[in-house]
Amino acid sequence: MSSQYEQLPSADLKKLIQKDRLSACFLELIQIDSVSKNEKNVSRLIQRLMKELGAEIITDTAGDMIGGNSGNLIARFKGNMLAPPLMFCAHMDTVQPGENIHPILKNGLFKSDGRTILGGDDKSGIAVIIECMRILKENNIPHGPVELVFTVAEEIGLLGAKHLQYDGITAGFGYILDMKDPDIIITRAPSAIRFTITITGKDAHAGMEPEKGINSIHIASKAIAALPVGRVDHETTLNVGLIQGGVATNIVPRTVTIEGEARSLDATKLKGLTKQIIDTFESMIHSCPKFEEPETARILPDIQIKIDEDFHSTFIADDHPLVKTAREAASRLNRTLKTSHSGGASDANIFFHNGLVSGVLGTGMTDIHTVTESIHLDDMIKTVELITMIILVHLENQQNDRRDNH
Ligand SMILES: [Zn+2]
Asked: With contact defined as beta carbons under 8 Å apart, do 362 and 181 qualify?
């Protein structure tokens, strides 16, 4: 099949993007409330638009499993050329305050009215993907199959991705639009654990007989002080985020609970740090004089440690087709796409461990999760250009491979 778009120059691609349509679509999306677990109305809008463009729609049961009102949404386009499918993803939910958003557009910059977030995280990703599909369809541009994934509850622990119907997706790799910088692709993200530690000491009157008590808060604080809290090294962090204990100033506190998290790009380091946390607390307990409580027959102080694996790391090599295709697409647009790593997790972490390798691309979203969040229309346009070009380069690579093999 030959087409005027087989070698679509970047200048032509720019002309095909309808800025006003992109802007209107983004404004419509952010004005639909979709705080995590309440994504139904946004999902309905996307479904309608995708059906109009000819997609096959799948909605999964993630909503039922997490107590939300919507599942994840998968929209599959067959394409008009033979190529392995490509995946693009954005999440439908937002953080709070994310209800009754009144966007203000001034000189190409979107902001909220200052009372809520804007919701560019991640409605900008959704708007960009929709504009890209519209361009492909209305110009009949040759492209292979495209699978779009719109997840729920990303912001509350990647819950949608954790319950995604992966067999609805046949793509081996793809791109998630959920980050700031449009000239960066995130190919590495950390693994993380959460810990909850409860120390049980013994209560006593703090003024009259403190020697009969075992101060759980004191033990915990010595253990915390012995840990490398903060940035442990260039790829590892540790945080103690919550501490709860004690009942009154005149009572030696019996129990204290500490909660925290650790992350590292290096799974071995995370393992080592997790062991260090456990060892530090346990040895602090061992160094205390022991006391058997007659009523409970418990040996005090006592400790309970719970470690939860939060998410696994992502690692995508620079020579992976996903990275090479995206970089080639950027260079066709006279741009440079740099690989980088992230300190946080996204749906990419969960996808990666379900065999769906995903790089994370930026849309220009700035100051996310705050009421000063903003985004430039120009950055969204740049992202539409990039992902459309990725689809074109991907097809071209496929055709070249096939030619080489004959
Ligand atoms: Zn996001």
From this structure: yes
